[in-house]
Predict the 3D structure of the following.
Amino acid sequence: MNYLQPERLEALARAYALGTLTPRAHRRFARTVAGSALAAQAVADWQRVLHVLEEGAPAGPQPRPQVWRDVQARLFARDAHAPRGDTRTRGPARTWAGWFGGLGLAFGALMGAAVLVAQPQWANLESSTEAAPASYVGVLSDSQGHALVATTARRHGKVLRVRLLRPVALPPDQVLAVWAWNDADPTPRLVGRFPNVQSADLELSAPAETLLGKMTHLGVSPADGGPVAPTAPAGAFVAQGPCAKVW
Amino acid sequence: MVRRHYPSDSEDLARWLAQVALGDRRAFEALYLATSSYLMGVAWRVLQHRDLAEEVLQDAFVKVWHGAGLYDARLGTPMTWLINIVRNRAIDIRRSRAAALSDAHGDDDAAAPDAMSSPVAEPEQWLDAAIRSVGVQQCMAQLNASQRQALALVYYQGMSHTEAAEALRTPLGTTKAWVRRGLDILKACLKGRGVLVS
C-alpha cells in the first residue's frame, strides 16, 4: 500500500496524530513517518492543530515531587561515580554510604555531635572514609534550630552539593534556592536552585573558593521553578546558618 | 477555571532539548521544571487519574532523556513534540490499563480522580475553552455539536473511535466522520486565521 498517496497520507497522518490508529497500524505508519519527510511533515501539521486544543484547557493536579525523583532514579541511580565538577543532579537512590563517602571527615566534623547522636550508625560509615579534600561546608537549621540542610563544596570545585536532612514541605511547582551572604554585605546572592529532592548538585559559576570563600552564611528559600532565576528570596528562609572553609 | 501556561519562549525549550541530547542533566531539570505541570495536564485529561498521569509523565521524561536528539525543530515547537510524547503514552496506558482504571475509579476512593481547584469540565467545554483562548471562536462556530462532542472525546480523553461511538451511542462510521470532518474544519479555519505557525 502506498501510504504517501496524498489523500491516504492526509487521513493516516490525521489519525496518527490523533491517536486513533490501531496499535498495529500505528507502528506501521510510524515506520513510514521515520523514513519519509513528506509523511513526517503531514503528521507535524496535524500535531500543530491538536496542540491548539491544549491551549486554555484546565489544569490537572500538579505532579508531585516524587515524579521527578522517580525520573532521576530511573535514569541516574546507577551513576554514583560522576566525574569531579559534574554539574548534574543526583538521583535519590544514592546511598547514604556513598554520599557520606564523598563528604568525608570535614563534613562529619561540622555536622557535629547532634547529628551523630541522632543517627549513630553514620559514625561507622564516616570512620571508613579517607580524609576529605579541602572543602567549604555548611549546616543550615530551620527556625526551630534543627539542622535541615547540609552543603559542601570542594575548595576548587564548581559544584555545591546540597543535602536535605529532612523533607521540606513545598508546593509541587516550587523548588528550593540557595543564597549566600556575609556579615559585611548581608544581601543574599543566589547560588543556585534545586528540586525538592534529598540530594542535588548545584553548578557554581566559579570555584567555591572564589565564590563562597568570603561568605559566612547560607540560606535556603522556596523559589519559583520557572526558567528565570530569582534575584532575591521570595519568602522566609526554610533554613539558614553559618558556613565555613575547612582547609 | 484554572489554566496552565508553559513558557512561551520555545527557544529556551529547544536549547534545553539540545543540551539534554548531549547528556546535560541541568538542562533536563530546567526542561522538567518548565514543562512538567503543563504536561501533567495533558496526561491527566486523558486518564483522569493522578497516579496514572504521573506515571505517564515519568515515562515521558525518561523517553525525552533518551530521545531528545530526535526532536526536529523544522517539524514543530518543542512543546508540540513534548505534548505528543505525553499524549501518546497516556493513550497507550489508557488502552492497556482500561480495566485497572475502571477498577480504580469504581472501587478505590484513594485512587479516584483528584479534586481540582475548579470543577472538572467536560471535554466539550475544554474544546470550547481552547478555541476561545486562541481567539478563534469563529472556528468553534463552524463545528456542529456532534462534531465538537466527538472530537473532544477522542482528543482529550484519548478514546478510540469505537469507544467514542459507544459513548455517543452512534454508529462507528458516523462517529469517525464527525471526528474527521471536525478536524478538517478546525485545521482549515486555524490556518485561515494564521493560528498555525511552523
